[in-house]
Request: fold
Amino acid sequence: MMKNILVPVDGSEGSDRAVTEAISIAEACEAKLNFLYVANINQLAINACLSDAILEAVTKAGNVVLDRAMEMVPSGIEKEAFSETGSPAVVILDFATSNDMDLIVMGSRGLGVVKGVLLGSVSQYIVEQSMCRVLVVKSHNNRFCTWKRLDGHSCP
Reply:
C-alpha cells in the first residue's frame, strides 16, 4: 500500500500540476505528501564562491515554493516540506531511497527533442534510476486522472 509520496517542487507550472495530482493520490490512498525543493547548487560552489546573501536568497526562494505547495494541500492530508541543495536528480533519488518513498510524482519540463537529447532531464533520469514508482505529470496536458479508493482494494 502507498503511504509516502515524494513531490519534488520548483515553482513551475509542471510542478504545480504534479502537486495537484499528488494530492488526488494522497486523498485516495491516505498517504503522506513529502514536498522536496532542491536548490541546484554544486557543493563546491557553495564552499568556494557563493556569498551568504546568495545562499540566503536561494533558501528564501525555496521556502516560498514549499509554502505554496503546502498551502495547496487540503486539511486532513499529512504533509511535510524539505529543502536540500545539490544536483536535483541525485538529491531526489537519495531522498526517495533514504525515506522509503512509495511513489515520486513530479512535473515534466517538456524539453524539446534537441535540448532533451543534449542535456537530458531530471524527470527522465528519475524514471530510469528510481527504485520506486514514478509518475511524471506533463505540464501541457489539461486532463488529470481521477484517483478513487474502492472498498477492499488498495491503491496502486
In short: Helices lie at 13-29, 43-48, 52-72, 88-98, 113-119, 122-129. Confidence is low (pLDDT under 50) at residues 110-115, 146-154. The radius of gyration is 16 Å. Strands lie at 4-8, 32-39, 79-85, 103-107, 133-137.
